[in-house]
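User: Teach me something about this protein's shape.
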Amino acid sequence: MRFIHIRPAKLEDAAALARVEVDAWRDVYPDVLPASYLTKTLEPLLCETRWERRLRREQAWPTLVALTGQNQGGTPQRVVAYATCGPSRLSNLPFAAELFELYVHPDAQGQGIGKRLCAAIAERIYRKGYESICVEVLERNANRFFYERLGGRLVARRDHPFAGKILPACVYAWADIRTLARPRVKKHADR
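Assistant: First, the predicted structure itself:
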């Protein structure tokens, strides 16, 4: 397994976050989202500017990034994934927290990076006092089965308005967030 380091995003990560976002979306959604969205709205410089704004105002729930590779001094070098979370926006479901975004650059997929990032997010959420988590993912996103492999239960289907379309989405959930955070948070650990 590759060296993976997870930490909160910094302002200087904005260009790398934009690269991960653009490349991941264009890889996953070419047949799902309108081409104009993937080429115009997901233009790298626009995304970098949006990330700079986000990183300047983020505080309570910072974006986590995963870095791989090491320079000669052992410092991780390349942002290859990111995840965001917070209190659940799906008020009709009984889950306290929500994983809003999890994107791994296409060149870094299949190496356990997404799993490690999910565990770090779950640990962070658990330490803030939340005991359950959900994630909404577009049904036609082939990567949605990743959440099933991590033990997420399909708990709902819903229509998700996005980019001028209504897209079917699935909601996966973990009633006990510690199962997602393992092995970093033990089932019987005190907060």
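Now, about its shape. The first strand starts at residue 4 and ends at 8. The radius of gyration is 16 Å. If you'd like, I can walk through any region in more detail.
User: That's plenty for now, thanks!
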